[in-house]
Structures are given as structure tokens and as C-alpha cells.
Amino acid sequence: MFKTKKMVLLGSGELGKEVAIEAQRLGVETIAVDRYEQAPAMQVAHRSYVVDMLDGEKIREIVEREKPDLIVPEIEAIATSELLKLEDEGFRVIPTARAAKLTMDREGIRRLAAETLGLPTAGYRFADTYEEFVQGAQEIGFPCVVKPLMSSSGKGQSVCASEAELAKSWEIAMEGGRVQNGRVIIEEFIHFDSEITLLTVRSVNGTNFCAPIGHIQKGGDYIESWQPHNMTEQQIEEAKRIARTITDELGGLGLFGVELFLSGEKVYFSEVSPRPHDTGLVTLVTQNLSEFALHVRAILGFPIPEITLVTPGASRPFKSEEEYEDYSITGVDQALSVPDTQVRVFAKPVTKIGRRVAVALSTAETVEEARDKAKRALDFLRVEK
Ligand SMILES: Nc1ncnc2c1ncn2[C@@H]1O[C@H](COP(=O)(O)OP(=O)(O)OP(=O)(O)O)[C@@H](O)[C@H]1O
Ligand SMILES: NCC(=O)N[C@@H]1O[C@H](COP(=O)([O-])[O-])[C@@H](O)[C@H]1O
Ligand SMILES: [Mg+2]
After folding, report:
1. Among 272, 293, 348, 373, which one is least packed by beta carbons within 10 Å?
2. Using CA positions, which residue lies closest to atom 19 of ligand 1?
3. Residue 276 CB–ligand 2 contact under 6 Å
């Protein structure tokens, strides 16, 4: 019998699917967990479980039954208090249970970054009630950005332009949070020139950085990313300083997506994912080791001698415009007729409006050409009933 390490993935979306594939390539037994059946990573894992991942008892049951060597969070909304206990009992949580807990909640990571570590961030307030929210927004000023404490991909997020929009922003946040406890963050709106993800990997070789990934977001969700993003030497140094500071503090082994805003020569810390990042899907075609391969190598304790950007590249996620129980994706053939282009189809069992269901990935000699190719490929894709 082949003896190997066992990994439980908590969250089984498109990012987890690539993590599972990389783990399988190194012979790791992979168990996928998510809130619904046929989630992308479940399609390639050895086994899977469907549970509410915010239910600590359910997570414990799976961990006690499987006794994994590695517990690998793939989304932020997990019963992280249970992960702390499991870690105390000797289970390994990636990168650490504390990192999973702090980043699940915007308050935890923001206070750590701004107040404990002194990193530059947008101004912010927290509010539990509508009255506190109104006061916080007035103090921050307009426009401001309103987000539930626990959410991702822009869910529940809005830009509140003036006092007249306060009620609407509050309502959006209350409906969009993963846990309906009402607390929100109100952030100063940063008029940035561009924003980036600095993928940072902590491995047995120490800390390494990938080339910066530029991206554009709409409604808080990414619609395009490219690598490398053009930055001045000073901006890169400051971005690396911020990324090193926050990832050293979070600790453990693995890849992190450090999100930063660039405004003139100033670099702001926005947030960090202690796991592969959606904008980093572009690394599937640009690097010698993708962000998923890097994560798996790092957490298994394998070396990462060098991260090489092999070519400029770009990614464009394909988001459904409809809600369908049964659907197919057409136009993949035409998308693949664009040179140097790949498409990854996630095969999520149902679509929702705005749900990411595939991604187009292109390379070229320049970022501009790669962005153009990925856009052309994306434009061929359709969701059909
Ligand atoms: N303070 C801000 N000023 C200006 N733009 C902002 C601010 N906060 C967020 N944004 C915009 O909204 C996007 C999403 O914000 P954020 O990363 O906090 O949300 P998220 O739901 O955690 O997204 P994800 O899970 O995809 O990382 C940012 O990438 C940025 O484009
Ligand atoms: N920005 C975070 C992010 O991109 N997370 C990715 O989206 C999935 C959830 O998708 P769903 O909402 O379509 O199920 C997550 O499982 C993860 O792969
Ligand atoms: Mg983000």
C-alpha cells in the first residue's frame, strides 16, 4: 500500500480544485469539503464531504474521522475557533489556525495590520448598529466603502457616495455577509492609480515573492488580472516590506495573496488571503510554478529554489449572467482558437448571477497583448440553458 500524506481542503471552489490537482501530482491523498455537492475540488479529490463549514462540530467530525496531516482552508468562512482547538490538539492548520481566524474577519486582520504592525491602510471604523454605521460613515467621509466583516469576492460590499445612500449600503451589507451578525467595516475610499496582489510564499527556503499581479475589480470582484504589473523600484520595495511584515506576523508555511493599492509612490495594505488568490489564477500560465503548486510545495515542506516568471500573461474570469439549475458553457472552441490561450471550466453544478464559472488565460510577449487575447477569448464564452 502506498503511504502518503493526507490533506483535508476546507472549501472546494475553483482555487481548491487547482490545489487538489497539485497535491495529487505529488501523491497526496486529498479530501475535499464544501457546502454543496460536486464543488470543483470534489471533482478531482479522493473523497469529499458536504457540510456547513461554519459548524465547528461538523468540521471536527471530519477531522477526527480522517486524521489528516494537513488541514488546508480554501475560503475564509470556516469555523476557525474549532481550527484553533484542533491545532492545540496537534493537527496542522495551514498556514496557522490564528491566520485563518484573523483573516476570516476583516476586523481581526485590519486591526493587526494597522494598529499592531503600523502598516499604511485606508482609514476605517466598525459598526454593529445602523446608528453606529451612520456615525462611522460621517467620520470617515464620502465616498466610503462598506463591507460585512465576513464576506469575499465583493459580496455585500458597496461604495457609499453620500448620506443619501447610507440606508442602501447598510442593506446591501446585511444581505451579503456570510454570517448575519450585522457588524460592518466602513473604509475611507482610496483613489488609487492601480491595485495589485503580491503573492508571497513562506517555505523552507524562507520568504519569496512572485512578480506583482495587477488587477481590476468591479463590485468588489475581480474581472481581469495580469502579470507582471509595472511598478517603480520604490513601490516594489515598499510592497515587499508590507507583504513580509504581515506574512511574518501570520507565520506558518504556505502562499499568501497580499492585496495592495498603489497611489503615487504610496502603497496601502488592503487585505491578505493566507492561501492562493483568485487574481493569481494568471500564474497557471505565467510562472514555472503556479500559485497552487507553490502553496502545495510550501505546505508539504518541499523546497522552492526559484520562482520564475516565464512570460507575461493575463486572466479574465467568466461570470454567469443568469441563474440556471442546468446549464452548459459554449464558445470554448472559439475561445481556444485565440493563440496562446487556455480555458479552465470549473463545472460548478449551478449558476447564479455573477458567479464565476470559468477563466480565460492568455500569454504574449507583452502584458497588453496578453490582456487583449484574454479579453477576446472571454468574449466567446456563453452560459446556456
Ligand atoms: N478602501 C477602499 N478604497 C477603494 N477601493 C476599495 C477599498 N476597499 C476595497 N476596494 C475595492 O474593492 C475590491 C474588493 O475589496 P476587498 O478585497 O476588501 O473585498 P473582498 O470581498 O475581500 O474581495 P476578495 O475576497 O475577492 O479579495 C478591492 O480590490 C478594491 O478594488
Ligand atoms: N475571492 C475569493 C475567491 O475567489 N474564492 C474562490 O471562490 C470559491 C467560491 O465560489 P462560489 O461563491 O461560486 O461558490 C471559493 O471556494 C474559492 O475557490
Ligand atoms: Mg480582496
Report:
1. 348
2. 154
3. no
Name the CATH architecture for the domain at 6-93: 3-Layer(aba) Sandwich (3.40)
- Please identify, in words, the CATH class of the domain defined by 123-188: alpha beta
Instruction: Work out the burial of residue 282: count CB atoms within 10 Å of its CB; fewer than 13 is exposed, 13-18 middle, 19 or more buried.
Output: buried
Distance 13 CA to ligand 1 centre (A): 20
Distance CA 304, CA 297 (A): 7
| Ligand 2 contacts CB of residue 82 (under 6 A) | no
Of 14, 150, 225, 284, best ligand 2 pocket probe by most atoms within 8 Å of the beta carbon: 14
Residues annotated in a binding site for ATP: 106, 147, 152-157, 187-190, 195
Cα–Cα distance, 355 to 225 (Å, whole number): 17
* Cβ neighbours of 63 (radius 10 Å): 21
Whole-Å CA distances, 74 to 60, 204, 276, 285, 289: 17, 22, 8, 21, 19
C-alpha cell at 154: 465583493
C-alpha cell at 375: 479579453
CATH for 194-384 is 3.30.470.20
* Closest ligand 1 atom to 156 CA: 21
Exposure string of 315-334, with b = 16+ CB inside 10 Å and e = fewer, is: bbbbbbeeeeeebebebbee
ipTM surpasses 0.90:
yes
The residues facing 257 across adjacent strands are 199, 273
Do you find a cis peptide bond into 68, omega within 30 degrees of 0?
no
Lookup result for grid cell 488565460: 361
Mean pLDDT for each consecutive 10-residue tract of the chain (385 residues)? 97 98 98 98 98 97 98 96 98 98 95 98 97 97 96 92 97 81 93 98 98 96 98 98 98 98 97 98 99 98 98 98 97 98 98 98 98 98 97
Q: Which ligand is nearest to the CA of 14?
A: 2
Cβ count within 10 A of residue 217: 16
The pTM of the full predicted model, rounded to 2 decimals, is: 0.97
Determine the residue of 75, 199, 258, 272 to mutate for testing ligand 2's pocket, defined as the one with the most ligand atoms within 8 A of the Cβ atom.
75
Q: Whose CA is nearest to atom 14 of ligand 1?
A: 220
| Catalytically annotated residue among 110, 344, 356, 371 | 356
How do the domains of the chain map onto residue ranges?
A: 6-93, 123-188, 194-384
